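Give me the fold.
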Amino acid sequence: MNTARAQSATTVSGRVADGKDQSALIGANVLLIRLPDSVKTGTAVDTEGRFQFDNVAAGRYVLDASFVGYQKQRQAVTVSDAPVQLGIIALQPGGIQLKGVVVTGQAAQSVQKGDTTQFNAKAFKTGPDASAQDLLTKMPGVTVGTDGKVQAQGETVQRVLVDGKEFFGNDPDAVLRNLPAEMVDKVEVFDQRSEQSRFSGFDDGNTTKTINIVTKIEFRNGTFGRVVAGAGPERYKASGNVNTFKGDRRVSVLAQSNNVNEQNFGTDDLLGVVGNANQGGGGRGGRGGGNGGNAGDFLVNQNGGITRTNAVGLNYSNAWNKKTELSASYFFNRASNALLSNTQRQFADRGRTNYTQTANSRSLNTNQRFNLRLEHKIDSANSILFRPRISYQRNDAASVVAGRTSRADTALSNLNSTYDADNNGLNAAGDLLLRHRFAKAGRTASLTLGGSYTQRDGNTALRTDDTGATRNNLNQTSTLNQNGGSLNANLALTEALTRTDILQGNYAISYAPNSSEKYTYDLLTGDTRQLNEGLSNVFDNYYLNQSGGLSYRHITPKYQASIGLAGQYSELYSDAQFPRPGIGRYYFVNALPNANVNYRFTKQKNLRFNYRTNTNAPGVSQLQAVVNNANPQQLTIGNPALRQEYQHAVNFRYSASSPEVASNFFALLAGSYTQNPISNRTLVAARDTTVVPDGAPAVTLPAGSQLTQPTNLSQQYTLRSLVSYGRPIKALKTNVNLSLNANYRQTPGLVNGGLNLARVPSLGAGLTLSSNISANLDFTASTTASQNFVRNTLQARLNSNYFSQVTRFRLGWILGPGINIQTDLVHQANSGLSAGFNQQYLLWNASLGKKILPGQRGEIKLYAFDILGQNQSIQRNVTDAYVEDVQTTILQRYLMLMFTYNIRSGNVVAPAEPTDGPREGRGRREGGGGGGGRP
């Protein structure tokens, strides 16, 4: 009997490859499903894409091959006594849904596919006009911060793909705020590997937190979009987006004009080359809008204020043939900002120094940027990738600042200043990646060539009025010209030692020269001016870096592990030519170890460990020994004696999902330690003082003013932890997401010669309840709380505990045919801040809308923002030298009448009137792995 059973068992083997170039899809999953009992056996392919199932009993099976970003492949397999050789199983890119697979019952919230978490959009109900970002905020581990940035699994999302392809470059905001939730089929969250790593199959640990939006089939051929126009007393908005998809060819146009702080593009378009000219801190509070969504749904300059925006964006992508793919995007943005801020700052010195400031600033920023990505597969063994990018910015800024410095309640200075600045900035960069795959499986070569050029020109004017000492009054102009660039190359070679072992060698070199010229003139009587040598400087520097190393990687179906070591030689050269000539040259030799492990306990449980080291060179502004007196009470100066930083970073990530109960669990533990961190030396003058900063000429410091200079210190580290859990509560038809976090940060700094270690432990928790009752009734209730403990070793009087809590409730309710109400409440509570800053407010927005036109494509809506008139902006900033609280102006109550028109044509149909029936996709064809590219 035993002999007969042994003779009936055999093997099933094959190779999983890319359907275009036949390259191995390393890490692809293969399932062998026995019929009729559906018992599953799984494995992962090796470095050559091969797999093998041993001891397979005779019978009928279904083999399932999948890989993130590719269509799932299924085929019937009949096993007898002889080994079964399946040959090449070619997967096609795109994640197109499979025919013939029928899904019934409740949709699972998520599944874990290796280190990729895939969420099923059908498990999260949203209203008919919801955006992709509205959908994401219902998913476990995904949050939107007060600055509008999306975070997933404790990290900021840096890239959003659509069906595995770039969409508007690397701008997550442009994607999530402009794509409708109704087009989303799957959402995949993963750490995308570098281009070189995805080509060679060697995971080098260089990853980017990425979200991939897998679209429904009906949205892949047709035109869809939305046009919105609204107006009210003193406020207006107009925006539109049109997307035309036809297979691989996709064209999208975005445009907007408003004065309600709405910004659907990224921060690069808004912040400019210098940002606002005030010296305050950041801001919180509700932003403007008019779509009835979250108060924080619109990204604006985090310094707050009122912003008027005019912007347009264009995106194009297409696969011209099987070998060539192109994507490109262009943005134009013009934003004017008006900001009034109040600052209360307490220094960590022994003299109990305080600084209060009122700043009124205005800025006008114009930005243009262009990105392109061209990939061409010459043949099955060779390919090239070219990625140029260029941006141009112009920023005109002006501010009026009133500052007062006191010590022990005695005034040291009262200074009023006006500052005007005009700056232009040009940034151009590009890289070319050449890749070759040898005949021997696992042997590859890739060469990356890159370069960049930056240019900044500016003019400033400064006038001050010191009410206590007129000798400190200033009337100055200055000119600035900075040029820089870089040239770099990286060669990587991989060699498969066995079917499970890979060796990679790499060599990299980079050269980054910079030059800066700043001339400051004191304006005397009439047209007479005099060069101020103490505020002028001519400075050149370069940073040369070379590194080479080896890494070894071992791959099994259960885990993948690698370890490597690189040697690095760096040279930092500086040449100060005026007014104080001097040459500095520093050499650094470092060993840079790295390691990572990816362990799969089961198909639904994954643990990832990563350890990396890196160095960071100081920038030209940090090295340049010239005083910046944009705020005469807060002077800064560079330090030509700075050394490079050396950082260790380690993190553990654990992900698990349970399809049976539709739950998702994620845990993160991360930390970093920096050797020779570039921190700050701060001096607050109690009386008129002359100081000599490191590597710089003497500086006259009036009483009450502050001088800050970067310097290398020690003992800087951070610790972060996060746990999140989500699952549906069937009885309530509601999804619940829980999160806990604990963090610790220590930052060193010198304050009046004393070493201060600013330590900030913090604890946080979050709870989100999102409805899954019906698309007719959509609500999300959430609260996040944070308790921070500020501790300073130099001055215990600054020790404090401060608490912040944000509670939100958003409701969308379709009352009848085409009639809907939306309301959004945000409650902010602060305690433990400075006197006058411990305020609570309730931001209440609401709208009433009526659908019109055939197919309910149009809507007329009355929208009210900040109904109670309580919106505020308050933020606490903790640094190595001081603790400050900042309050800024923010958009407040307005009323707007709006009209919205949804564009739908081709295979894309207008959203139907929601019903209370199930949305789980009964009878729908269900997709496979999605389009996230090779993670």
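The first helix runs from residue 2 to 8.
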